Amino acid sequence: MTKVVFPVSADPVLLEITREGPIFIMTMVDGENRFTTEMCKAICDALDHVAETVDKEGLTEAVLMTRGQDKFYSNGLHMEKALTVPNFTDHTFMPMLNKLLMFSIPTVACLNGHAFAGGCLMAMAHDYRIMRSDRGFMCMNEIDLPAPLPAGMSALLRYKMQPHIYRSVVLEGKRFSGKEALASHLVDAIAEGVEPTVELAKQVARKIAPKAKCGSIYTLIKEDMYPEVSSRLMMNAKL
Description:
By secondary structure, the protein is an alpha/beta fold. It has one domain (3-233): 2-enoyl-CoA Hydratase, Chain A, domain 1 (Alpha-Beta Complex), CATH 3.90.226.
């Protein structure tokens, strides 16, 4: 199995891309997988690598699946590092979310563990989400910090969630288990244990991979689906 690591020419390795047939698997390998400038750049570079491979090989079946390791999908922003980078959220983190949201092939988030704050946002930027039912929570904890949600983040959550669920997420900081996330339509399916969750995510990925044959149409449809979300995520990206 061929593996490509990111960053390509720097240590430490933050994520890996492997391939199983039509499935490109992005595995974040940085422990809690907190978002820094380096992690966001690695994700964007990995997305470019996948898109270029799909185009170069003329693939008619392709899908991106992301996952973490151990008990974390992602535990959100690395606040100590993020606070040292001017406009990190506007210039780095939210553009990364937008790149994933608007990605040119189907995307599946395999939530092997906790998806907190920025990790929850990354999961919601995918087309589909599969979550482990016996361990891990989805949560936005800004209300308990306390900290406001930038407009782009709010728009992403508001679009992807039913109004009463959005209220519980942002005003209560509710932690959703796998079963609660499924009942609230935050995820599409759940499985017990890491490997069954990964296998279920792969099943979903294989089912939707043929939609990649639509090529640029897939992106155009997404642009029509998410105009407000995308514009708000990118609102201050170039300032």
